[in-house]
Amino acid sequence: xxxxxxxxxxxxxxxxxxxxxxxxxxxxxxxxxxxxxxxxxxxxxxxxxxxxxxxxxxxxxxxxxxxxxxxxxxxxxxxxxxxxxxxxxxxxxxxxxxxxxxxxxxxxxxxxxxxxxxxxxxxxxxxxxxxxxxxxxxxxxxxxxxxxxxxxxxxxxxxxxxxxxxxxxxxxxxxxxxxxxxxxxxxxxxxxxxxxxxxxxxxxxxxxxxxxxxxxxxxxxxxxxxxxxxxxxxxxxxxxxxxxxxxxxxxxxxxxxxxxxxxxxxxxxxxxxxxxxxxxxxxxxxxxxxxxxxxxxxxxxxxxxxxxxxxxxxxxxxxxxxxxxxxxxxxxxxxxxxxxxxxxxxxxxxxxxxxxxxxxxxxxxxxxxxxxxxxxxxxxxxxxxxxxxxxxxxxxxxxxxxxxxxxxxxxxxxxxxxxxxxxxxxxxxxxxxxxxxxxxxxxxxxxxxxxxxxxxxxxxxxxxxxxxxxxxxxxxxxxxxxxxxxxxxxxxxx
Length: 494
Fold this sequence. Notes:
3-stranded mixed beta sheet, 494 residues, 2 domains
């Protein structure tokens, strides 16, 4: 290196920034650009998964299903409230990555805390979310979360995976080749129903929506803490007896709030000057709270087979059932029947005649042990080998998935029209690693129709413990909070 160049550099005149305003501006702009690039570089990368549908078909599906949804739900139809929510929503969707869908936001006249999104842009927010939110950023957190479901195409991704599992390739090819979204919806059973693949997100999808929703809040200059704060509101509502339906169609991932806070840290932490609240939000929340109470839910929505209780047989008091395998709480007005390791727990009217003189469970819970023992499958040996008892280990997940698949095969032998909607979702309850699978089957209720079977499985040395929550498809949502509370109460005996 030339020493004269070093001397020249050493004696070069350094001009103070204050004496050159254009250089100061350039430096500020450059620093802002660097900070923006850093925020994008450190955020969790997220992208839509495999999909048989095109983005345009997402829009068509959402438009078709939204018509059915609005016939079934009590819409608020208040221009002032809908305009506010749309303005806030479009501020957020302007920062949503991916396809630029025609997002539209509507408010449902229901005080339960819930919201949901349909493919291609329709997003519905219960008035209960507005009333429960403490700040505008908390409400924005819910909207950003639902926007992320649309941007990540979670609904049609679920439908694509379900179609590949359910439909023969010849039928699947014909349906997709017909260019008819109506035909696809009919084949997949993907209308506006509780067990619809369009609304049954996985825990992985929920985690992705949390992270992308946080990113959308950040890019919209809204307080990113709003996302985690509203999850705290939901948890407080669950504990305080407030009607919370959010987790019925948004399965709760592990460490949800911690993961959101971790994403905020990746983005650089909560930024000064980011908007947390507004007078517009406070005014609209006060206005919504002053509106007449929502209409009472119909009998179909709230009282299924158990008069005098709330929401599909939910009761404020409960009793416990215990056998050699587990203990579980259930509504006081329900009846438990047990023999050995097997048990059935049902509300009044939950057991019906199947038309052949047999009693069949149409609404309620089945508990039993499944013992795979053919084809050399050493279930107990597999469980007691390396990985048994290690929560979250890949080996225990694999063993649980294999045993669950065997159980489903056995169930389908006697239930020819049973099909898998969503499977292999892992979670924990009271320290126990469990797997969730949603099945659809023919219902034994008068008039036929389909039922939803929510299958929960967990490993035991003596076999696979399984719990099946059962209700007709059109009634499942009204039972789901009760089923979730029953599941949360499960204590497995040592």
